[in-house]
Amino acid sequence: MNLRDSLLKTIAFFDLFDFPLTAEEIKDHLYQYDRPVHIAEIKGTLAQMVEEGQIDEIKDYFVLKGRTQLPETRKARRFIAEKFWNRV
Predict the structure, then answer these.
(1) pTM for the complete prediction?
(2) Number of H helices, E strands in the chain
């Protein structure tokens, strides 16, 4: 599998859970890519994909086209989770 396919599949998987990823998180969870890859290569490929209209980048998060609300959803969920962690 090439890097572009792996990046797109990684973003799509996390999209199922309404969870956008940063480039670093994508690198940590890269789907079925067995070759070593540097974060600069990932960021460059993601930038090309954004430029070509395959994905969107909102506030350093990468999402599928049309899913621009996901960074706000993630922010809201983090706030809720922190409230629960304080109770624990």
Answers:
(1) 0.85
(2) 4, 2
For residue 31, which amino acid is it? Y
* 58 membership: H or E segment, kind and range: strand 55-58
With contact defined as beta carbons under 8 Å apart, do 3 and 33 qualify?
yes
- Whole-angstrom distance, CA of residue 53 vs CA of residue 17: 22
CB atoms near residue 49 (< 10 Å): 18
Two tokens, residue 19: 């969870």
pLDDT digits (tens, 9 = 90+) for 24-41: 999 999 999 889 999 999
Residue 52 corresponds to which tokens in the numbers above?
């070509």
What span, in angstroms and rounded, lies between the C-alpha atoms of 12 and 10?
5
